[in-house]
Amino acid sequence: MFSLRDKHLADDIVSQIKKAEVNLKFMHVCGTHQDTLVKHGLDVLLQKCGIEIGQGPGCPVCVTTPKEIEEILVLAKEGKTIATFGDMIRVPGVTSSLQQMKAEGCDIRTVYSIEDSLLLAEKQKEKEVVFMAVGFETTAPTTASVLLRDPPLNFSVLCCHRLIPPALQAILDMGEIKIDGFIEPGHVSTIIGVKPYEFISNNYHVPQVITGFEPIDLLMGAWMLVRQIQQGKAEVENEYTRAVKPEGNRKAQQILKQVFEPVDVKWRGFPVILQSGLMLRKKYAQYDARKMYEEELSELTEKEFTEPVGCLCGDVLRGLISSKECPLFGRQCTPDNPVGPCMVSSEGNCNIQCRYSKK
Q: What is the DSSP-derived secondary structure letter of residue 134?
């Protein structure tokens, strides 16, 4: 788990937290943070120190809504070549999944990046290729960079990108749980920097720390939050200085603004969150799958979509319950037979809990 040097540092951090005698609830919004917490037993270690760290809506596959999944299923049924990441292919929709549709003969491709989808469209120009773009500020710049290169017209994007800071505000505004501090995602923060989080601390007086993904990073992040609370502060501190610059990645920010505009969207488990999604600007409408295939998707316009019966992924994503409190967890819902997306994605809380529960 730790090198000898890191073990001494970890012991010192844990000792300092125990001396503080706290009873606090923190939230992070990153699947990689959750993996590190559970894999290394930090969740249990910190609970013994009076700190509970829960995962919020930090899994892009998990927060993609049932309607968005139905949109891509309709396009697959209409004969389009669908390209997306492996986890998305396995997420159950209301009527089917991309994995099931592939078994039924639809052209579904697993890709590792949007570049793979573009190559497919360039090589097979007789095919209409739709890339299902999911992810936060980390992956959205890759989508933008491809669209800036004038891809072929047989290529389009079903944009499901989302923005993290508005989701944090939504969690606080809903007021369902008390959050004493946020551990902010390192990957997203390399793009957006520090400033986009400051309104949370300023307006809600909630401390925040941007952390990396090693066990020491998360322990240090927890201690830095405790220290802020002890001092009566609410600031955005950057523990992950080796990767996150205060200003973020300005070039990535620039191309995001050039290609996308913010839009109000739903997240799985949430109502509409203002300015929390990204849609293609009018200049790039010719690559917007929702505009290109508006007629095919019209059948979904008036429909309402709900979670699978018994699935509590929405409550897990809002931090209301742990995965183990869902009645389907590990019983009807397993990694081999997932009912909800939190059990599908490698960044989903339920999948992570299942993978490491025996350890």
A: E
DSSP-assigned letters across all residues of 236-264: EEES-TTT--TT--HHHHHHHHHHEEEEE
Q: What is the pLDDT of residues 134-146, one digit of tens each?
A: 999 999 999 999 9
Query: Which of 213, 283, 244 minimizes the C-alpha distance to 137?
Result: 244
- For CA atoms 186, 188, 193, 199, give the dihedral sign: negative
Q: Cβ(117)–Cβ(83) under 8 Å?
A: yes
Torsions phi, psi for 325 (to 5 deg): -85, -10
Question: DSSP E strands: which ranges in 125-233?
Answer: 129-135, 155-161, 181-184, 208-210
State if pTM tops 0.90: yes
Strands 108-110 and 81-84, by their bridges, are: parallel
Residue 222 and residue 217: Cα distance in Å, rounded?
9
Residue ranges of domains in the chain, CATH in brackets:
4-58+164-238 (3.40.50.11750), 61-162+249-300 (3.40.50.11740), 313-356 (no CATH)
